[in-house]
Task: inverse folding
């Protein structure tokens, strides 16, 4: 009977899940195959590692994957670090908590391109921020803040956009923690930090890992923020992939795409594992 129930479940999931797996699998197959010389749109097709060899020797490629990881890691860590205390603060309703929560989640309703253009207008050479700093006497003249070399503008945009998403994930997990458990820990002499470390963090670990992974994978592959507010002296992997595609270098674009997928999966798993080690002190 058990195998019959399992077969029924598989049959019910097959129409939707099968279509998703088929589409994802075909994309992965074509990207990997094209990176090794197959499906060459501009020449002969055949197995070759020359595209990987030439790409690994390019400085622009090495700068791109390091920069993308930098944006992905810091966007995820900062977003979750800001969302965690806010989720704990909003854990129990109080006067105005609904309004505060709505305002904090408002960036989710703003399209990323709109936010990027607004940010550029604010920090441009004659923008509001430059005028404000000159008005209060801290700066003698306008300074160039747009498309900074360190990608701080992209980090600001990513955190502004992703922190509300992390808050949305975290707050549900934190609210599910029983008051009786926290009250019992308080009665036993546990301080606020001890309650967080021993109770809140372990019970909300899954939500924290989910937020870190989802935000990291979105930030490391982001294109729109990079194009508008990113530095001019380096490109993200997404920008590099589009650059090769627009120049007809499909095999090179496939190499970058496969690199992006592999790095996203490996580093997302590393983030989740690191969070578990930090909370428990070891792998559990």
Result:
């Amino acid at each position: 009977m058990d195998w019959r129930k399992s077969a029924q479940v598989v049959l019910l999931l097959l129409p939707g899940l099968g279509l998703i797996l088929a589409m994802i699998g075909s994309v992965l197959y074509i990207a990997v195959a094209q990176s090794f010389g197959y499906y060459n749109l501009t020449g002969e097709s055949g197995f070759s590692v020359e595209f990987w060899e030439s790409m690994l020797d390019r400085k622009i490629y090495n700068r791109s994957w390091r920069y993308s990881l930098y944006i992905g890691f810091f966007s995820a860590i900062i977003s979750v670090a800001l969302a965690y205390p806010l989720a704990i603060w909003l854990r129990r309703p109080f006067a105005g908590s609904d309004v505060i929560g709505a305002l904090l989640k408002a960036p989710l309703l703003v399209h990323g391109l709109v936010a990027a253009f607004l940010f550029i207008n604010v920090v441009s050479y004659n923008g509001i921020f430059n005028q404000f700093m000159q008005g209060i006497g801290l700066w003698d003249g306008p300074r160039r803040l747009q498309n900074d070399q360190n990608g701080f503008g992209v980090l600001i945009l990513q955190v502004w956009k992703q922190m509300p998403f992390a808050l949305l994930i975290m707050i549900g997990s934190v609210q599910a923690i029983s008051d009786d458990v926290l009250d019992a820990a308080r009665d036993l002499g546990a301080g606020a930090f001890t309650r967080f470390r021993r109770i809140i963090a372990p019970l909300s670990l899954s939500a924290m890992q989910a937020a870190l992974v989802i935000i990291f994978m979105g930030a490391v592959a982001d294109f729109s923020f990079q194009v508008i507010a990113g530095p001019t002296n380096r490109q993200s992997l997404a920008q590099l992939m589009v650059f090769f595609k627009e120049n007809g270098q499909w095999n090179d674009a496939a190499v970058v795409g496969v690199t992006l997928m592999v790095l996203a999966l490996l580093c997302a798993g590393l983030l989740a594992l690191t969070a578990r080690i930090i909370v428990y002190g070891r792998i559990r």
In short: The first helix runs from residue 2 to 35.
